[in-house]
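Feature request disguised as a bug: please show the residue count (351) next to Polysaccharide lyase family 1 protein in the output. Example input:
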Amino acid sequence: MTRISPLHGLGALALATLSSAALAGPVGYGAGTTGGGSKTAVNVATLAAAQAAIDAYSGSGGLVLNYTGKFDYSTITDVCAQWKKAAQTLQIKDKGDITIKGANGSSANFGIHIVSAAKNVIVQNMTIGLLQGGDAADAISIEGDSSGTPNSIWIDHNTIFSSLTHCSGAGDASWDGAMDTKKGAYNITYSYNYIHDHQKVALNGYSDKDTANDAMRATYHHNRFENVQSRLPLQRRGKTHVYNNYFNNVITSGINVRMGGVSLIESNYFENTKNPVTSRDSSAIGYWDLRNNYVGSGITWDDPGSPGANATTWTTTQAYGATGYSYTVTPAASVKAKVIATAGAGTNLAE
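Example output, currently without the count:
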């Protein structure tokens, strides 16, 4: 059955004027992020070269890395050997005005960690897959610490994947997060990313006790989540705006809002998804403002436990209020085709 959730005040005239074109540059809470700007790109082909360039950089004024390396994923013949190996991570710590952009055809077997007082950072057009390191290896992790909190971050047009294989002895850590936001990181936009064949996609809030995440603000738009298990995102506290994303073949749960967090879930396209909008597995529930979502076939639900809630009737549980930024919405029924055509690396940043 196809269903569009209630309009919640969006008038017919406004709906008719919505455009299918995304705005150029970062839209949402990460708006204004410029990264390294127009600085001449430095070509790097390895993790070591990329880390050396970041370490040598003063920390402000602009650095653009053009990653040209190619990793042959076919050389990984046993995916369950990966979690036992040491993690490989490119770290950006306490530095800003940085762009990391993958060249078309590039591919990587290392994660990117944006930590502490890092700010004004763009990660774009990277293909990252089958990371080693288990729960020590996120594909992209944005994380505050006692020295500072990352902000003004744009994660755009990347392709991230691993495997749906659950490896013996790994517990739930065969693979860790694809796009994680932790410990108060804020003003972040995740746009046009393609996450597939992955288990734990997007953690937002380190734990139920991560009170720093009250200040978190993140936008997820025009992302493609397909053949994934859960966390789309898993949100503890804070506020997220989740609009114009495509969800297909979601095995366990989709958008999971917890610990008093509020999410504006708008004009997304859901099909073949279990528990597409839910609150479960924390000591307190979260809330959602649902607007104009396309609900296709293959939607199923199970018991969220106590405390818990499911959006089985597709009704709002708490008004979100104003986002504080302008954006253009793709009509929900058009999202699937648009996102499949534009999300991920190698699309020439199509919008």
